[in-house]
Amino acid sequence: MTTVSPISDSQKPLRESAQYLKGVGPARMEKLRKLGIETVEDLLLHFPRSYEDFTDIRPIGGLTAGKLQTVQGEIVEINGKELADGRKVVSVVLSDGKDVLEGAWFNQVYVAARLRYGEHVAFIGKPKRYRGHWQMNNPRIQKLDDAQIQEGIVPVYPLTEDLRREQLRPIIQHGVDQYAHLVPETLPLELLGKRRFPELPRALRDLHFPGTLPAALNARRRFIYQEFLILQVALAIRRRELRDRLRAPILMVTPQIDARIRRLFPFTLTKDQNQAIADICRDLAGARPMQRLLQADVGAGKTAVAVYALLAAVANKHQAILMAPTEVLAQQHWRTLETYLAQSRVRRLLLTGALSSRQRRQALEEIREGRIDLVVGTQALIQNDVQFGRLGLVIIDEQHKFGVHQRARVRRLGIDPHYLVMTATPIPRTVALTVFGDLDTSIMRELPPGRRPVVTRWVPPDLRDQVYERIRGSLREGRQAYVVCPLVEESATLDLKTAVKSFEELQAGPFHEFRLGLLHGGLEDRVKDRVMEQFRRRELDLLVSTVVIEVGVDVPNAVLMIVEHAERFGLSQLHQLRGRISRGVVAGQCFLFADPASEDARERLQVLTRTTDGFELAEHDVRLRGVGEFFGTRQHGLGNFRFGDLLADHDLLKMARQDAIALVAADAGLRKPEHALLRQAVLDRYGKTLDLSEIG
Predict the structure, then answer these.
(1) Computed over its alpha carbons, how large is the radius of gyration of the chain?
(2) Inter-residue contact 681 to 396 (CB < 8 Å)
(3) With CB atoms counted within 10 Å of each terminal CB, which end of the chain scores lower, N or C?
(4) Two domains, one topology: 1-50+160-182 and 56-151
(5) Interatomic CA distance for residues 116 and 112, integer angstroms
(6) Under CATH, which architecture does the 455-611 domain have?
(7) Residue 550: pLDDT over 60
(8) Where do the H-state alpha helices sit in 327-479?
(9) In the predicted model, is pLDDT for residue 149 greater than 90?
């Protein structure tokens, strides 16, 4: 479990097993483990999911339907009966001297044994009108003569089987009473005062046993803010370290260099492309390493911007690298560069895992001696044996496919280069503030002139034959198409069309007259390259594939796509997939075969057919699927929060970011005594992930 802060000798009891707390023992400890509770500290930080407000005490005549309320009175009637459907119901009538209310419990006959006539109790529940009187179904009961049970604001905890709230609360009460004062205060007092948050022992008490609902919610916000602040301080330190402590080569783009580069493009750049290039040139002209994220919607032309940046570095007598997550995408970038640089003297090289040992040794020697200007490759570029003579610029495409720590590993390649991180997966603001929170951002939405948006249709399974006929007609006219499947092979648990089975069925059936290819991640790289090259050369008419074509594949003649079981994909992934068509002047058509069972899946498909704006889709996607699932941000370790929710608590994330930037600006290494515990918490949580050597 993630701890709030480091533990000194005086806090060792916090690390002890919760089994030895009063009321736990071995059997109940097993139930606590199912909730992720191992230690005393874990118990203290077992967050309530919500709160019930039992302070709204009403006379029966003043009740409001459907709202949680409390009524007090004397039990005047207890009845039990069996309904026609076999259920047993216990009915208890409460009188406050003026009006009556019925409490009804279904299949809970033990309730009657707990109560007696004339007893004064409180019922807590949501009343409704029933046959002319007020009724509460399954209300909670408080005996008014038992002070120990008197409650006002009651936390609702995540529980597990055979562990009830009334069993857990005394355990937490004991833990808070005995150990809350031992949990070290991570947040500086200046921030607690500025944001009006309670100090930690008070916050723990307000979290679990609040006097008022605002006190409970403020304590909850304090812990969420703390979690966000630790991340944002880590990002601010990394950002400052890379900008202020490191020195990168100054790469000036003169009007002459700009003109020479632009002559290589057979098209006019868009306004968004020119703005991104201006941002990059401004960064390259500084002695601090550029740290920029280029977000481009699908088809907005980020590759041209990358080529410009690469050539700007080469024009300044420095080496540049372009790193892609897959062999397929690296090959795609290489072909694009070869097209642009056909008449250029730029010395370039494709470095992937497909090279023989002899070829790789020769390539590494040329790179080390500076005889290569520009290198395109995969993760093979960041192996320990790769050394550069004068590395000036690193461009990482589709960074989220790598893992955040690999940006730090690239620094071992030579002096501190400039960095440009690119993605054609539009990123929601909440995710960008975490996964890419240490980067400046440029955004490209505008499509190049002549590029037409994809027409997307959600097709029910019974119209499959009509779609097949439309695609056959286009293939006969010389066009090409994709069929995308969610799986490669048959699954024992999922009844889905697979790429292999679809390939066989389509080849033998509706597309028997055409040339089909099969592409999936399980194939050897050389086989994948051969299939893609055949498709690119129009030696194949239809390509059956998994999502390996999601990013970077560029075949302008492929203007049709079928996505099988489209409900299985996220919005952003579907947007990426359909971005493989409409790469030329002909508008692409994407057919989503789907029979969604859930409302969320239906909403995803409806949104996708309604808009082609990737940034709008990204916001929808993260709302529907959650931040942790958005393009696998869990792999980064930066989207995993124990307390906070990036969507629900976005205001706290922004607040923490502002405070973190100001804090690090005033105390870059967090060396002041009052920042010592925050510093240690940052290192413990993100030191390795973000390579925070500056404060290590």
Answers:
(1) 31
(2) no
(3) C
(4) no
(5) 8
(6) 3-Layer(aba) Sandwich (3.40)
(7) yes
(8) 327-340, 357-368, 405-410, 429-435, 464-476
(9) no
